[in-house]
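Lab meeting notes turned into a lecture example. A postdoc, R.K., suggested we walk through two folding results consecutively so the class can see how the record format repeats. The first protein's sequence and structure tokens come next.
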Amino acid sequence: GPCTECSCSSGKEPDKDPSHTKKKENGDRLCVPKIFFGTRTHKQITQISRELKRTAYSCVPMTILSSRDYTCIHPVVSNSGNRNEMCVELLEGKHGKSCSYYHGVHKLSEHHALQPVPRAWDIEDLVSLGRKLRACPYFAARELMVGADIVFCPYNYLLDPQIRDSMDINLKDQVVILDEAHNIEDCAREAVSYGVTESQLRAAREELDLMVTNGIRQKHHEPLRAVCCSLI
């Protein structure tokens, strides 16, 4: 039978309700779940969005979550070694400067080419439009997630709790699809792993030595120093 939950088959415009809910006859609220489609790489997202364009669902509201490495268009930040840190510094105005691209996000997220969505798009389409409008594709993609029916992203955006929190992703009562799920184990292991160098451990030990010597919260710092020493 025809699809009754989304707007694709009826030709109606997508639901503009930011909470993404619909009313039932008895007055209760019926939540329409989003589809979170996780892939191993950003390149695979491009392939999937290309296939989506060929289906009857190409008009469904969508977005693609990706890192600043793929979506930052700021001329200085995009060419730096640490895009995340520089972006945060600009947004906080630490050095008296701000990001004009960030303040133009609404021009991109509300652009007729994306809202309402006439067809599926990929990261390159969003970045190209962002350069044209001088608006940030990274934050525009996050803003589009509010009204999206389907959200594409790499595995770690769904599996890593820190990334989920930073991207405001809530998977409760949502549909999650994991492409090539045999890769999940490695991704999950990376999400709870952390790598440090020996020089970082030695620097941490020196700072902890200083804390303990000066009697600063010794009962907390002595066990940490012991861990650093044992690892070194």
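The second example is placed directly after the first for contrast:
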Amino acid sequence: QKEDIEVTLLPAGHCPGSVMFLFEGGNGTVLYTGDFRLAKGEAARMELLHSGTGVKDIQSVYLDTTFCDPKFYHIPSREECLNGILELVRSWTSLSRNHVVWLNCKAAYGYEYLFINLSEELGIKVHVNKLDMFRNMPEILYHITTDRCTQIHACRHPRDDDCFRGNRLPCGMTCQNGAPLHIISIKPSTMWFGERIK
């Protein structure tokens, strides 16, 4: 039996280009989320989820999320996390030019919000291995650099943790102006909150 179905792609906010699928047909409406990250109020601003003055009647939602588990009782908001990281990075980098931060980011995409906000707030560009993957995201290009002489790094290496334990950054940098670097590592990770009681 044939049926016409309208499929709408909605921004998922997980990483650049990620989408949720809204299926609408004679037998009802279904939303498949995939991995997604939406701030409070963001769904309310998605016009395509609304019909007239109300929200569309969605019969089924297929929720694809790692965090649908009671152990993730409280995950801080993106803003709370950013403020905590900002405070730590600001206090560390203000000690000297040789105090640097390594953002231990395990995925290639999804940290753009963090990079942009750190750069804007602190006036420090974030070092990345290469700019290629960000070429289609012009809003971030002003905030990242391939110049290693910066205090915030998000560079990557196959043996990242070994580099850090050897007091060098994944890009190989160990000193600046002849003085050794003082490196702290920040691992932006939601999984951390599921591994702890409080």
